[in-house]
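User: Just a sanity check before I run the rest of the batch. Below are the structure tokens for the first item. I only need the designed sequence back.
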């Protein structure tokens, strides 16, 4: 389904988990703005923001740090992403499926963004809430990466684990569940939420692949969802999020990553009524808030990560975005 709505199947198991942890599911749902019926009916449409808020509030109200990660156990990607799975089944290898998932994630929802890229020796599958969709993505990011790693493990050798797993936020006190699901190579306070995949697993054939014309299936699925073949603004935002820690990330860098000229990209953005600078500032603002609230990186490191020459420039920009100081945004972090 297009837009920021998602099917309530993503909340499967939440009601039982909340009762197990001593909370009233209806109270958590109401506080998050999720219809109580969505906890039992998998086919209701709920805003992505409400779902992310639900995960975060559930962890807080239950005082249970691993709520999102525990809920990922036993859930399957196919059930959650709906029609997009039809397209993913035509991928032949794990790497192809990761690429198709990232390229077509807008078929599922625009409330979050995915990016997949191959370097010399690894593939990086990253996930992020879209700008303005989540004040905290700790719970939902761990849920998403838990779902993705479980899907890959179905097709991987026994005892396989990612090369590394990155989280933007700070680590929990107890890492036993994270290590059981992801392996021992965990990196917190990172610049992405991402799985790093080795060449061998990316080349693994898929057990559930079906033959067919992938391009034709993509066209049919997109036509059925009434979506354009390219959604420009989400693409630009996703590339900015992927490039920001590693490159100046100007419009020329993004245009090059998209395979178009700067002028073409500017014209495409003009049609949407959004400018490149506004999208980049929205990403910077969103990431700045999350790094400050949920990671242990210094403000100086965050400034460099977001492309600022010095802390003073970052501080001015942050106050312009939020009308708050950097210090006021991280009172609980040591």
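Assistant: Here's the designed sequence for the first item:
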């Amino acid at each position: 389904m297009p837009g920021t709505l998602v099917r309530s199947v993503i909340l499967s198991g939440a009601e039982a988990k909340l009762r197990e942890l001593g909370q009233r599911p209806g109270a958590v749902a109401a506080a998050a703005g999720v219809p109580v019926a969505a906890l039992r009916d998998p086919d209701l449409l709920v805003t992505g923001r409400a779902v992310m808020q639900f995960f975060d509030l559930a962890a807080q109200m239950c005082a249970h740090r691993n709520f999102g990660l525990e809920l990922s156990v036993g859930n399957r990607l196919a059930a959650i992403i709906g029609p997009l799975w039809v397209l993913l089944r035509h991928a032949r290898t794990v790497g192809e499926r990761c690429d198709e998932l990232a390229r077509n994630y807008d078929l599922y929802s625009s409330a979050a963004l995915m990016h997949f890229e191959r370097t010399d020796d690894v593939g990086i599958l990253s996930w992020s809430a879209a700008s303005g969709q989540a004040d905290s993505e700790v719970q939902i990011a761990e849920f998403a990466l838990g779902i993705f790693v479980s899907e890959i493990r179905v097709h991987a050798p026994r005892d396989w684990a990612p090369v590394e797993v990155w989280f933007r936020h700070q680590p929990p006190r107890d890492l036993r569940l994270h290590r059981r699901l992801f392996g021992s190579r965990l990196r917190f306070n990172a610049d992405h939420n991402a799985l790093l995949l080795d060449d061998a697993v990316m080349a693994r054939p898929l057990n559930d692949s079906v033959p067919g014309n992938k391009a034709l299936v993509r066209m049919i699925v997109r036509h059925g969802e009434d979506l354009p073949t390219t959604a420009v603004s989400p693409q630009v935002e996703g590339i900015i999020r992927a490039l920001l820690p590693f490159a100046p990330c100007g419009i020329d860098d993004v245009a090059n990553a998209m395979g178009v000229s700067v002028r073409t990209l500017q014209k495409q953005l003009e049609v949407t009524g959004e400018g490149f600078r506004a999208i980049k500032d929205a990403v910077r603002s969103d990431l700045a808030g999350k790094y400050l609230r949920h990671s242990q990186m210094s403000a100086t490191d965050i400034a460099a990560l977001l492309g600022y020459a010095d802390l003073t420039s970052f501080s001015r920009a942050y106050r312009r975005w939020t009308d708050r100081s950097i210090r006021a945004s991280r009172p609980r972090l040591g």
